[in-house]
Amino acid sequence: MSDVLLRTGSLSFAYPQRTGLFRPPVPREVIRQIDLAVPRGSVLGLVGESGSGKTTLGRLLVRLLEPTSGGIQFDGVEIGHLSEAEMRPLRARIQMIFQDPQSSLNPRLRLGVTLTRPLQVHGRLQGRRDRRDRAAALLDLVGLPAAFVDRYPHELSGGQRQRAGIARALALEPDFIVADEIVSGLDVSTQAHILLLLRELRARLGLTLVFISHDLSVVRVLCDDVAILHHGEVVEYGPVARIFSSPQHVYTRQLLTAIPLPDVEPGWLDESNPFVAHQQGSAA
Amino acid sequence: MTPVLSVQGLQVAIGKGAHAANVLRGVSLDLQPGEVRGLVGESGAGKSMLGRAVLGLLPANAAITAGTITFAGRDLLAMGEPERRGLLGRSIALIPQDPMTSLNPVKRVGAQMALLLRHHLALSKREARERAADLLAEVAIREPRRVLELYPHEISGGMRQRVLIAMAFACDPVLVIADEPTTALDVTVQRQVLQLVERLRLRHGSAVLFITHDLGVVAKLCRTMTVLHAGRVLEEGETAEVLARPRHPYTRALLAATPRADRPAEALRPVPPALIESLWSEAYRLDRLAVVGTA
To answer: Is B269 near chain A, with CB under 8 Å?
Structure first.
């Protein structure tokens, strides 16, 4: 058993882009030569703004997408180009939590069914009784009452729905979870609860996480390491304490200074920020 | 000094009769000329509803059940529709939350801006075009003449928000209501947009009511702030004072639950659910008292 659960080597991905009706599509590279190593039991934060490629990278890591070049090793096995059938045994160990639980939970199914569907698909359920017990145990794990087994997603608040999304990802007892912007739509009071829940689950279940976010403050709460993405490249990568105390790359520094901290700071609105000139004129 | 905006004891309910539910429970708030006030609250606090009540844009099932709204000393609620319409977009402007759905997708940027300018300022077609280009230049859009010819989907989200800000300040408004205008934007773009709002409000001498859930944004932009929860004002004052010495437990809890890039993880304290529950039950108790009072 190696110390690194997930490793990528020169991972790249390109979408085919059409340039004209009769011209062949040209590959448009959105992920470029990414090398990451996620130690077992650790949390890696992937931070970037819109268009940085962070969601595409997340989808590559769980093999919802196939890399154009480079490799992904999961627990020592190269999974970058495995077929769907070859991936199947690994699917139980690799899970994803999505940004919007409103659209990723089936609105017509009770939570009990949604939460245990993965168990059913992988043949790990023994009858109806077992289903209810397993669903109740999962709800308990994320701090929801067992009675929620019979609820529909629309009967839940945003925070409760996100807890249910986490419970579903935990159903198959995965070792590795990619969480994509899972707290960005939540109120501050709910967000802190979800962050602390993830921290607790990670310690209790020994999970390895990749936490994708546009928000560096949130990343600081949860992550051991951070990779900063910009235009599909990792511009800075290191332990969370180091990135926050002495950011090396100019883009990381811009991201950090752009976060409005809840302290009054005259001069923050001065337009002498060098980044302004750089960002402008992005008209299509 | 007459306040630009004075809201007194405003009560708004959604629904009718026995099914009516209060969303604003006696909100009072004053805005002096040139003041920038942050209106902070979480979802369901009623902050957008307050903005919409001032603009006269409440949803069809919502109604003002008590209170007054005056704009520069004039009663907005007693005013006739034509008079009110003359104010909107001109003296009272809105910067909306969603730059994608707030522009007409089938009209070029220039045509939409010209419509507003010709309506309020009685400009000729040509003058309106000139003025629109000037306004885009003012919000730091390069090649404004080219952007005037584009459709909303052809420009980035940050640029769409700039266009909307340009339109809001186009007629030198006395009051601008900004409803979470930076929530959908990346942090680096958000900073530019906030800088822009600051520059324009100074140049045009407008007062701004800035609606947001982000205490950081309030800290940077607003001199005064009002904390709203369950349709009630829990705390208000100078931003520096409120953030340094919050008096209400809810404000303190919100600050402690806000993740900060400059502090280690251990500093984070989630809002105690018991606090939220007690605030809501207090709000419902007030509703019952009000019903008994009118019976």
So the answer is: yes
